[in-house]
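In this supplementary section we document a worked example of the pipeline. Step one takes a protein sequence of length 124 as its only input; no multiple sequence alignment statistics are reported here. Step two produces a three-dimensional model, which step three serialises into structure tokens for compact storage. The input and output of this example are shown verbatim.
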Amino acid sequence: MDASNLSLSIDLAAAAAPYEQLQRAVVAAVANGQLAPGSKLPTVRGLAEQLGLAVNTVAKAYKALEADGVIEGRGRNGTFVAEHGDPGERRLQQAAADYAALARRLGVEASDAKAIVSAALDAG
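The serialised model returned by step three reads:
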């Protein structure tokens, strides 16, 4: 799983510092399911370039997110969204992320994919 299509924006005129905005955006993306556990995040350098920020700004945000347990660095393998929740919940999160990726690859609209899951849950 990859978060390369992650859409983040930073308002340089906002009162909050850019690294704080980035932290909040990543936490929100994890909370709303846009970033599933195990998703690989862009490199510090890559995200800095994408957002027009200094590398140190992104590194500071990543360090704080890692300290909070939101993300985890895996050395040369990269930075990933940390696993969270109980084991059953993690399995469901991973299954949902895999399903979403499959739906995107097949060109299925989000509303149709949600309807398929709803029907499957209702069929119980």
